[in-house]
Amino acid sequence: MSIEALTAAARAGLFSLTLASDDELALLMGLLGIEPLRSISLLSNTEFLVLFDYSDRFLPQMTQEDFDVFYEKWLRLTDRESNMDEYGQLLFLQGRAASWNQMASRFILREAPMASTE
Fold first, then answer.
1. Dihedral sign, CA of 8, 13, 18, 23?
2. Domain-embedded: residue 7
3. Is residue 117 part of a domain?
């Protein structure tokens, strides 16, 4: 992985997905058929702590029926609530699969916790 690959991936568009933990990320990616997920620590970066590289894998391109089955399984395994935010963020991720799969490099970045202002 190079900084050029990361820059090219960022130009293609960043997408924010809210998850509770790296375990939830691993579960999500496992449900999408992407496992194990390789991680790279970004110790010198203040905005992002870890980069997960899945450049050697592709996101599945699901039919609406496949997505509905995936979404129900996701909710059941995570005990997350079904709401428009939850459904929308996963649907958006699925909608980007075809274009993201054409990119040479695909990454997930874990944000660093925001510093407390208290």
1. negative
2. yes
3. no
Q: Is residue 89 part of a domain?
A: yes
pTM for the predicted model, two decimal places: 0.81
DSSP 19-85: -S-HHHHHHHHHHTT--SPEEEE-TT-SSEEEEEE-TTS------HHHHHHHHHHHHHHHT----HH
Closest of 71, 66, 67, 57 to residue 106, by C-alpha: 57
* CA atoms 35, 22, 46, 14: torsion sign: positive
For 15-59, what is each residue's pLDDT tens digit? 778 898 889 999 999 999 998 888 889 887 778 888 899 999 999
Position 93 in a domain: yes
Rounded to 5 degrees, what are φ and ψ at 62? -95, 150
Distance CA 61, CA 32 (A): 10
Counted domains in the chain? 1
